[in-house]
Amino acid sequence: MKSVSPGNRSINGRSINSRPINRRSVSLLRTTVLLMLAAGMAACGGKPDTTEAARPVLVVHPGGGAQAALSAYAGEIRAHEESPLSFRVGGNLVRRNVDAGTRVKQGQVLAVLDADDLSLQAQSAQAQLAAAEADLVRARGDRDRYAKLVGDKLVSQSTYDAQNAAFKAAEGQARAARAQLDVARNQAAYSQLRAPHDGVIATRVAEAGQVVAAGQTIFTLAADDGREVAISLPEGRIRDFSVGQPVLVELWNAPGERLPGVIREISPAADAQTRTYAARVNLAGEAAKAVELGQSARVYVQDSGVAAALSLPLSAVQRGAGNATAVWVVDPKSGTVQSRAVQLGRYGETDVPVLGGLKADDWVVAAGGHLLRQGQAVTPVDRDNRPMLPKPAAATAKAN
Asked: Which one of 248, 259, 272, 284 is most buried, by most CB atoms within 10 A?
């Protein structure tokens, strides 16, 4: 048996040196790999692409301004003083001089009742007064005569006292008849319904020919001394409101125009059905002149203890370091996002007021913040997928 060196092998009785063959194979393999790498780099422009594509993100400004911490309540324009007008006596309504929407002056006759019966009553009272005055004249004469007779000792003192008492009774009867006449005359005057002050007729609930009772409402008069907004406040937040609290009023037909107002009164008891508290917001000066009765309005009340001037959608709020509340803010220079801690107020249904940590011109990521990381490149877009910031200079240079 022949000995074989470590570098030699025998195949079919032939000795083959394996070292030269291994060196050529390795060299060929290296050449092939280098050629493949060169081809790959040539196809990619000469350098491998390791740059991560910028992620599109929806961004918003912290919006709302002074409205961010405001709560809105629907209301209706009312007069500061609304007087239901009615007759002080009953009768047949024979004439109605005004209708709803008519502007009236103080003392103007609004409606008239049939006053025939009232006139007859006044005449009867006049006749009773005449009879009582005649009895008074007779009783006075009798008293004077008996006064002379008792002085001459011709009649007793008791007889004179009786005549004096009769005189006083007749005097009382005359005063009573005079008072009855005054009442009858007043009743006749009450057949005319007059405006107690200047204003506009808000409602009319009676028509000519109708028999009305004393005290039955015929008109509602809205005085010209001011305008208010009637609103209802929720039971759960009634402690957040107080009389004298400033508010803003926005009319339905004038969106964006807000008038100053003040809460004038708050009902001490909640409505039994709606469980809300009725409140009145006073509009004074030029603000009162800009509204009309019955208009729809919205009252904005600033939340108690919240002085926020900005707000964010709830989807923008993230959990930062140490479980702090944070948001992603886009750096316009580098096109990357940075986590920023913020102080927030009470959460609403769709947004939350910002108490600190942001400025009004900051671009905040409004959705998808849980997919971002610190310093990640992003492409800010609005809700219509339109770019909101120009491309950073570094990104533009790389693209070229």
From this structure: 259
